[in-house]
Design brief:
Keywords: Membrane, Transmembrane, Transmembrane helix. It comes from Mesorhizobium erdmanii. This is DUF2569 family protein. InterPro entries: DUF2569 (IPR019690). With 189 residues, the protein is an all-alpha fold. The chain has one domain (6-188). The protein is built from seven helices and no strands. Helix 1 (6-28) packs parallel to helix 6 (150-168), helix 3 packs antiparallel against helix 4 and helix 4 packs antiparallel against helix 6 (150-168).
Length: 189
């Protein structure tokens, strides 16, 4: 990390900051035509694509971990470590699928579920680290060696940007909250 110069940080800030600025700015702007900001369009379409791909990424991570799991199975308490990690990842996959279904159904619960999914990223990572350390009896720095923190931190930051969008966006509010409220009133009449 010592070789990461100030210019690298400036580039990272620009790559993250500029899109966030424009996403938040455009999300908070009221439209001249309120009906135009309902449904999957604009930035919400990008979020929908990302949410649809997230379970596939989790499954790809499972596939990439298969060799590591086979090596761990030969160790003492290895099966316990593997089964625990698989259970945590399956629980996270189930949460991703619940969030995806709520998004596709335009449920008013989607923003809250999306927030839960964001919070689950570090929770699953921390629980997984604790599980591996305790079940295998290895030091934490061995589990977190190399770039083990890069993917979870990037995922947490990236999803956090989308959480900010979800809670600021007029389109999200109109698609997931106003649409469902008007449908419930129409069905009650």
């Amino acid at each position: 990390m010592g070789a990461f110069s100030i210019w690298h940080w400036v580039i990272v800030l620009l790559l993250i900051g500029v899109p966030v600025f424009f996403a938040v700015r455009s999300a908070a702007k009221p439209s001249r035509n309120p009906e135009a900001l309902v449904g999957f369009g604009g930035w919400l379409m990008l979020l929908a694509i990302g949410q649809a791909l997230s379970p596939l990424r989790t499954l790809a991570d499972f596939a990439n971990s298969a060799d590591g799991y086979q090596q761990l199975m030969t160790l003492s308490n290895g099966p316990l470590a593997v089964y625990g990690e698989v259970a945590l990842n399956l629980a996270f996959l189930a949460l991703q699928l619940v969030v995806l279904v709520s998004m596709l159904r335009r449920s008013h619960r989607f923003p809250q579920l999306f927030l839960f999914q964001w919070v689950a990223i570090p929770v699953v990572f921390i629980l997984d680290t604790i599980w591996i350390v305790s079940s295998l009896g290895v030091p934490v720095n061995q589990v977190l060696a190399g770039d083990a923190l890069v993917a979870p931190i990037a995922s947490f930051v990236g999803t956090g940007i989308w959480v900010a969008y979800v809670y600021k966006s007029v389109r999200v509010r109109d698609t997931f909250i106003r649409t469902n409220a008007s449908e419930q009133i129409a069905s009650a009449s």
